[in-house]
Every structure is written in C-alpha cells, then in structure tokens.
Amino acid sequence: MNLYLTQTLQRAVQLNPDATATLFRGRSRSYGELGQRVARLAGALHRLGMKRGDRVGMLALNTDRTLEYYMAVWWAGGVVNPVNTRWSANEMVHSLDDCGTAILFVDDQFLPLVDTLRTCSKALRTCIYMGEGRAPAGMADWETLLQDSEPVPDALRQGEDLAGVFYTGGTTGRPKGVMLSHSALALNSQISLLSAYFDERERLLQVAPLFHLAGLSFLLRGVVMGCTQVIVPGFTVDAVLEAIERDRITHLMAIPAMLQVLVDDPRTAAADLSSVRFVGYGASPITVPLLERAFAMFPQAEFVQGYGMTELSAGVSYLTSRYHTPEGRQLGKLASAGQALAGVDIRIGDGEGRELPRGEVGEIMVRSPCVMQGYWNLSEQTAAALRDGWMHTGDAGRMDAQGFVFIVDRFKDMIVSGGENVYCAEVEGALAGHPEVAAVAVIGVPSASWGESVHAVVVRRPGATADAEALMAHCRTLIAGYKCPRSIEFIEALPISGAGKVMKYKLREPHWAGQERRVG
Amino acid sequence: MNLYLTQTLQRAVQLNPDATATLFRGRSRSYGELGQRVARLAGALHRLGMKRGDRVGMLALNTDRTLEYYMAVWWAGGVVNPVNTRWSANEMVHSLDDCGTAILFVDDQFLPLVDTLRTCSKALRTCIYMGEGRAPAGMADWETLLQDSEPVPDALRQGEDLAGVFYTGGTTGRPKGVMLSHSALALNSQISLLSAYFDERERLLQVAPLFHLAGLSFLLRGVVMGCTQVIVPGFTVDAVLEAIERDRITHLMAIPAMLQVLVDDPRTAAADLSSVRFVGYGASPITVPLLERAFAMFPQAEFVQGYGMTELSAGVSYLTSRYHTPEGRQLGKLASAGQALAGVDIRIGDGEGRELPRGEVGEIMVRSPCVMQGYWNLSEQTAAALRDGWMHTGDAGRMDAQGFVFIVDRFKDMIVSGGENVYCAEVEGALAGHPEVAAVAVIGVPSASWGESVHAVVVRRPGATADAEALMAHCRTLIAGYKCPRSIEFIEALPISGAGKVMKYKLREPHWAGQERRVG
C-alpha cells in the first residue's frame, strides 16, 4: 500500500472521531460524522454513474461541503477537477470538456451559470446542487443525495493513481490541467508539516479559495493532523475578523493581497487577534513594509513563507518562522523563499540542465516525489516542463551557501495578481484581437492590493480612437475579469531587441523603480 | 522521482554544509565532508566490483563510519545488509550466504571472525577493514580506499528499489531477511518526525546498535533534519554519561534495558543530564516504575514511546510526549503504545482479516507505505505475514476509542530481551537437541535489566542428570549468547491443551503475577 488521500481522513476518524472537523456558518461536524458523510456521498457518486478514474468537478465558494466533495470523490475512486471560480463561462467549458468532466457540483453563487455550462459543454452530464437552499428543478440536492445513498467502501486509489486535475493559467491562452497523484498530494502535506508543524488542537481558517492548490494544501494538512477547519466562503475583512474572534483561529494562511487589505482596514486594529499563532503566506510577491505591518498585526504569531506552484503540489521551499523573528531577521534571509522541504531537490540551472555555482542567477529547477505527472493531454508542454525528472519552473533565482532560494524574477511571462496566475500571452491575445490595436505588451506592475496588477502597453493603429475603457471592455468579453488589464498605457512603439523580442524589462523599469520587490 | 535515501544527505549538505554531521571519539566531520566521503566510498565500491542492486554487509560496533557505510552503499546503487553483531559465526554465515553478500565491512572488534567467515561463507568475496588501526594483510583499508577513489555520481536508486535486507529472528530457527525499499525507509523517517519532531540544532546520541532498525531509524531521522550525530560504539554507563555531559546531547533513543542500567547506576545521579530534552524508548516491554524513575532522571525531557518492528521500517505508532507529562498521564494512555503515525493504518483483526470492535483483543494488523516488500527468498513466510496488503504483526492488542493501541501480548512466540527478538522455537530446538531433554517450553520472564529474559521449562528423560548449567553450556554451542536461557526450571510434565499445544500462559503466570507489564 502506498500513500492515499482518504487515509488522512480515516486516521483522523480513528484518532479522534468526536473532534470538530469543520465549522461553517455555525454548522459543526465531527470527524466521525465527516467520515460517514463521505462514504455516503461516494455511494451517491457511484449511483450517478461515476466510474473509477472519472473526473468530478466543483464550482463553488468555500464551504464545509468542499472538504466532503474532495474526500468523497477520492473515496469513490474518482479524480477531482475543481473549477476556478474566477473564470469566464468559456474558460470553464473549456476545462470541463478538456478534462471530460461529466459530474459537476455547483453552489448557489454559480447556479446562474448552469444552463450555459450545460448547453456549451459536451462532457457535462450531471449537475449536483451543493448550495444551502432547495435544489432547483432538474438538479440533485446534497443532503437528499446523502440520505438516499448507502455508504460504500473506500476505493483505495493510492500512490501514482491520479487524484486531481488542477487547471492553471496557460501561456498559449488556454489553462493547462496539472495532473497530481495521491502520493504527491499526501506527501506534500507531510513534508510541509515538517517545516511548519501544527497539531490537532489547532483551528485553521480556510479563507483562501479551496479550488486553488494553495488553499487545498492547507486544508489537507489540517486533515492529516485532525485539526478543526473553520471555513468561510471567501475573503472579506468582516469574515476573517469574525472567524478569528468567534472561533479563536490559531492558524491562518493568506496571500499577501489579503494581508494588505487587513492591515489597511481600521476594523483590524479594534479586533482581538490574539488567538492567531501562525500566519502562512505566499503565492505572490510581498513587500517588506507589508510584512512588517503584518508582524505588528499578529505580534504573537509565527510567520512562515511558502514558495511553490500547482505543478509541484504546492510548496517546495519554506522560509520558517525562525527567520521572521526580530532576532532571526538579523540572519538576512527574510527576502528569500527559504530552503527546500524534506525530500525536495532544488537546483539553480543554466537552462541546459546543469547546476550553476551558488550565488549565480538561473532557472529554479525542482525534483521531488510531489511533482506533477504532467499536463493533461498536453504531452509537448509536459516534455518541455519536465526534463530528466526536473520541473523547470520558469522562475529565475539564486541560492546562497545555506540553500536559501532567492527568487529574482519569473522567466515565464506571467503576472501573479491576488494569488492568481495571469499569463501575459493570453491577455495580449485578447487585446490584439481588437481592430484598432497594432501591438501590445502586457506586464505586471506593483499593486498595494494585489501584489502585482495587470498593465498593458498598447500601440494603436494610425487613426485609432479606442481609449483604455474601450479596450478593457473588449477584454472582459473574452477573458476572466482578474486577467483584464487594470491600467493601459499608449506608446508610439514597443522596445524590440535584436532578436526581435519585446524587451519587457524596459517597460517594467519605470513602474518598479524604487520598489523593494519580493517574488514569493 | 520518488523518495530516495541519499536525498536526505544531499539536502543536509545543501542546507548546511558546515554543520557537524558526526562526532565520534573526538573526530568531527561536517555534512559537507560527509557528502564528499560518501561519493568517494561509493566510487571505491564500484572499483571493488559492486554492481547495482548488490548487497553489501557490515559487521561492526557503532562508529561514524557506520553512517558513511549506509549512505555510500545507497549512493553506489547497492543494498545494505548489516549483520547482527550478537550472532554466532554460524548465524552470520547463514545470513551472508542467504543474501548473497560478497562485500563485508568489518571493524577491529570482529577481525578475529574474518577467517572463519571467509572459510565458511560461499558468497563472501571481499572484506574491508573499517576499524581505526592499520588494515591487516589482505584487507583494504577505509581511509586508503577513500583516498584512492574518485567520487561517483549518486546512482539515484529510489522509491520501490530495494534499499536493505535486515535480518530478524526466525520462528523456524533461521533469521529472515526483511526487504525494505528506499521509499519505505525514507518515509518512515518523515512520519516519525511528524509525531516526534526535532530540528537541525539537536545533538542525537546514537547508542543503540546501528545494525538494528530502531537505531538506524533514529540515525536516518537525524540526517533528514541535518542534526549532529554523536556516536558511541555501544552501551555503557560511562559512554552515555560522558557523551551527554561532553557533547550536550539533546536527544536520546534507548531501549528499556538501557534506561534500567542507567537509573540503577550511582554515577547517573552525579552526572549533569540537563541538556537532554528528548528520550525516545521502545522495542521491548517497560514497567511503569522504571518509566517513573526515568522521568526523574531526565525531569526536563519529553518522553516518546515507539512501537514497531523491522517488517514495518521501525515505528508505526507513537505515544507522544504529551501523554507522559504529569498532566497528560491523567489521560490514562501511559500504558498504551500510542496512536498510528500519519499515513499508517492500524487495525485489530480477528485473524481472518476482519476488524474487531474497539476494545476487543485481537491481532494487530498494519498497512502502510513503510511495510516490507517481503522476506528475502521466503515467499511462503511473506504470504503468511502480508495478506491483502496488511502486515500481520503476531502481536495481540486492543484499540480504544481514540485509536490508542494497547499491546496485550505477542501471538508470535517471541521474547524481547534487551531489544533483541528471541524466538522461542529456536531456543527450544537447541535444548531439545540435548540427549537428556524429553520436552521443553521456552518463555519470557520479567527482568529488571532486559525487560524480559529467556526462561526454559524442561522435562528431563528418566534417569537424566544434566543440570541447568550443562543445558546452558549446550545451548551456547548452538545459538547466540543472548538467545540462551538465563534460567532453567525442571518440571514433571508440560501443561498441554486439548489441541495438543503447550499452554505457555500457565507457565508464565507465576513469573508475571503482580507485575504491571507493558509490551512496547
């Protein structure tokens, strides 16, 4: 037997069946109940025709049912395929069809999309309502499904069996499905806990989106340790402060954009945040001034930074708490993304697979038991990313004498805005489709709220009159809102290198001048 | 890429090359040096004709070179086969030949055995001297080998590749070779650390025999975390107290017999043991009075008990420190072997593979990614022990509502004496070979020094005159000293059940009456 994800639940049930597993809007369930509900929901999936290895989707804000969804799909022998809630309907249809997902769980928020998805998707067959009200006509209902189904035994998929397909932004304009195995996801929980340990007495706040691997990884670690998971639908200052005060949250995982909003909000200073003993952050750049304000906001908390990516089952290096303390900061590692987790090989490569001497900047390469199996149905992109067992991250970095990784820039032409990856090529493609646009380059510029925001530099055709507003509206018809440019600048000509490429660093320079920038 | 054991070394070198890896008799080596020495020693193994997958043996007391041996064999692509130093030459020859081990490292202590091993073993081809003096004629020398060899790249054996064959006592009179993979051993380190965490600032005392999996597991965890390993050749009160005081040992792993000797020795009370913050114990029964004396000996230390076996890559359940504190002892778990480690399934079975209700006594069954691949060349015994993915431990136990495992007795007819397994059938076979013995039953009886000691109940043939002394002498010619009976009792007839089996519990009763017994 190898590692398997439902084992984490089974063990939590064995060790403490009466402990609170989930808290959502006052609804509390123990691990014992969770285990029983998962076995029944898995039975329901079988009744709905789900076969071993079938993909099952979810389109919902965070709820306690999110954990039931994940565990039940695995228990039933299926493969999870959570949908990015920020996508346009077009993007959702693409990923469902690409992945051949026939069953989709949908909550109240996304009910209005169901007709469109059903009409446009060739793969989608069954939608299950996972919201809190009464199921709309033609849809099964979560609690009725559970009541009407018999529990089934764990299908015991394990090891290299595919556990999930997680879509991530694509450089060619289409999201790519990252295939992660049971072993990869389960092991990532364990090695992450070795660098940032917590135990079953903790209460974790699940506020980052749980369709995203950063959120899911934190959720799974909570199951491994049998913690109480306090789940809120999404990030608002009210939701976070309320949960911390009411449920005495001990552990928080946040992207820098959330920390920024929190420190900027006057209500934060008035709230009792003294229960918080751990703040994990990552997934986008953070500035040292923001970090310092976060230290002041949670003076009694340990801070841990993670660096990773979906292709690596989330984190591969951690900057542990000891480098965040006033004393530890003297060690000068605060600007780094930390050291490799146990079991993870990190190297700085020269682009040809050779390791560079310490201190030199090159591409960050990662080899680990948690690396993806590949991109779903994209063998060429898989071969380009995974060479000789090494994941070529596309990020530029250097490593110091103690193995601390300093991320210098992203080789991949990608913006991380509010924790989401935005691939410039996709935004450029949308803008370039406008009849009055002659040339375009999209870059990330610093944003107090989002880490980076999407900025477009546009060369208009002679005689064009379209303004920034018109181009933004054009983009919104084609791509998700978070990918659309927040600002547009018009220039006469793009700076082109001898090799014919746009020299984006020249476009970035004026925006980033004087900024202390960290890419986490 | 999957987990691989040399990765633990490579990461320790990357994260802190200058940290002290090993301390042995005043000789200190950094992780950077260790990495280089291992790559050279692996080169030497290649020069000596070792091929991928070849077994390489070691017959030595603990030294810093023990760690170099393990890592170099793995680095070179080989399989370790450490020899139990307490065996008779006969038993050693059997295991070397059974395993086809052609290369053997031998230290000063065991040099006198080399001629016999060479003469009697068909497999053994090359002996390498790993002692501290000058190599005897006809043997290669450790440091010369290193100097004369070029470092080679890591062979990168991984995952399910065989990492070691570890011989454990056999019920049929012959030790069985337990086959453990890279993944099993590496993962066992990680999950053990999740229940008893320590970090790279710790200094571990390696006093338990490193050929044994309990010792090796503690050693490997130290490499995973990049700790300083303080190694002593073997257990003496002097060696332990000296190391603790001189090297400020923080972490200690001991079998109960060692703790017993330590608490009984007057020098212990005079020693400064204040640096010790962690005491791990297990591998044999411990009494609560001994445990309480150990708490008093190390008042500032956390105590953790492990339960496991070679077939499971060492520990599968831990009783963590919090149940050892004065407050935690109120929870009533101190008599248990703790809860399953992360990733480990433990069940109490009815002997037919069905799980029993909580509280009922049955056979402890374990399923985990750390279970052995099987017994070397013993497919029948493997099939008997591993059924449907579950290791049938042969231990009797029950599980409470929180998953705590209480070990009641060992189904396998085995005595654990001083951390070593003694299978009764083997001792009975030796005694039965004496011409004056009519019938014999061997049991474990309580021993202050050894947890249990080997006790024989003998029915003599009519007119026989052989006394206990004579029978013990007879045994010593056939089996290892630690397997020989420490006491012999003569009776008229053995109590036989209706099924024709010796009712050993009736023989045990008078010895164990009034004893609070824990089997760890």
UniProtKB/TrEMBL annotation, chains A, B:
Domain AMP-dependent synthetase/ligase stretches: 9-376
Molecular function terms from GO: ligase activity
Positions of the AMP-binding enzyme C-terminal domain: 426-501
InterPro entries listed in its UniProt record: AMP-bd_C, AMP-bd_C_sf, AMP-binding_CS, AMP-dep_synth/lig_dom, ANL_N_sf, ATP-dep_AMP-bd_enzyme
Cited CDD domains: FACL_FadD13-like
PROSITE patterns referenced in this protein's UniProt entry, alphabetically: AMP_BINDING
Keywords: Ligase
Family matches, as NCBIfam families: PRK06187.1
Protein name per its UniProtKB record: Acyl-CoA synthetase (AMP-forming)/AMP-acid ligase II
